[in-house]
């Protein structure tokens, strides 16, 4: 017994450790092989990091409008062809690729890779989606494969969504501690592949995670009075890209002017967009 225990401890020591709300769910919780070899921080490839001055467009559905004069396009990892990504980059834009890291979507090509035990409650308001047990080794293997897909398609960075399951009704035994571990796992794996990585929402853990992520993507921090927390990102020269969906911002010019003044005061890159993120409505506070 003692010899076996020593052997087990030695084996563990020789491996790199990879780590083990809201009421209704909106886009603030979702818009939509083998474990990778560990790479030491000194061996990580260099990668692009967005600047505080960068501007953005976010579209996940519909025919992609590639004509906006912005620095960054945030688009769907699965649905966007490689040719579109390359064309955006040739035009001088960086491309961030969106995927859900905290939910299983039954229309995705890799959905069958999830096990029944990996999934918890359905996401309220989002048909075909269920929260994921982010402690699961199988879930993490799938996310590594998605990051590999981002590399193969030429993405400059990634936006992993639904990384605040612990703060929602997931039906799973998630906690603030397991969420920090998972989010840091995602950031580490992205960086190991030369990808910039965004922290999506998870407003309760901004201070804990600012050093791990390169920028932030937020939904509705103005509507929910959460924008002040993002000062920790901008103070570290890490930009914050914000989307707001309230109808008043689209229909009321005065409300939009107030929104944009607040965005400027918080140094946020704010867009007014439709919840479907299909480019049917777009107002930018910057131009």
TrEMBL record:
Q: What superkingdom does the record give?
A: Bacteria
The Glycoside-hydrolase family GH114 TIM-barrel domain is annotated at: 55-280
Q: Where in the sequence is the signal peptide annotated?
A: 1-20
The record, for Pfam families, names: Glyco_hydro_114
**Which InterPro entries does the annotation name?**
Aldolase_TIM, GH, GH114_TIM-barrel
Q: Which keywords does UniProt give here?
A: Signal
Q: What is this protein called?
A: Endo alpha-1,4 polygalactosaminidase
> What is the organism field in this record?
Pandoraea thiooxydans
Mind giving the lineage of the organism this protein is from? Bacteria, Pseudomonadati, Pseudomonadota, Betaproteobacteria, Burkholderiales
């Amino acid at each position: 017994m003692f010899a076996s225990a020593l052997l087990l401890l030695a084996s563990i020591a020789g491996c790199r450790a990879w780590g083990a709300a809201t009421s209704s769910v909106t886009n603030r919780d979702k818009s939509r092989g083998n474990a990778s070899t560990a790479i030491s921080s000194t061996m990580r490839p260099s990668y692009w990091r967005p600047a505080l001055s960068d501007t953005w467009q976010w579209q996940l559905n519909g025919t992609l409008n590639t004509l906006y004069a912005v620095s960054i396009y945030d688009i769907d990892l699965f649905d966007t062809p490689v040719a579109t990504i390359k064309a955006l980059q040739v035009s001088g834009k960086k491309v961030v690729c969106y995927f859900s890291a905290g939910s299983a979507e039954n229309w995705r090509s890799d959905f069958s890779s999830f096990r029944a035990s990996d999934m918890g409650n359905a996401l309220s308001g989002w048909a075909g989606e269920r929260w994921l047990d982010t402690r699961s080794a199988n879930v993490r293997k799938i996310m590594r494969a998605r990051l590999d897909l981002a590399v193969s398609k030429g993405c400059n960075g990634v936006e992993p969504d639904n990384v605040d399951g612990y703060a929602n009704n997931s039906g799973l035994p998630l906690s603030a501690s397991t969420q920090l571990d998972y989010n840091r796992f995602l950031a580490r794996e992205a960086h190991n592949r030369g990808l910039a990585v965004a922290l999506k929402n998870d407003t309760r853990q901004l201070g804990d995670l600012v050093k791990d992520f390169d920028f932030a993507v937020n939904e509705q921090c103005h509507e929910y009075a959460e924008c002040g927390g993002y000062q920790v990102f901008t103070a570290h020269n890490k930009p914050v890209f914000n989307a707001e969906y309230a109808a008043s911002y689209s229909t009321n010019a005065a409300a939009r002017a107030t929104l944009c003044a607040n965005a400027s005061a918080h140094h946020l890159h704010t867009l007014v967009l439709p919840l479907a993120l299909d480019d049917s409505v777009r107002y930018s506070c910057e131009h």
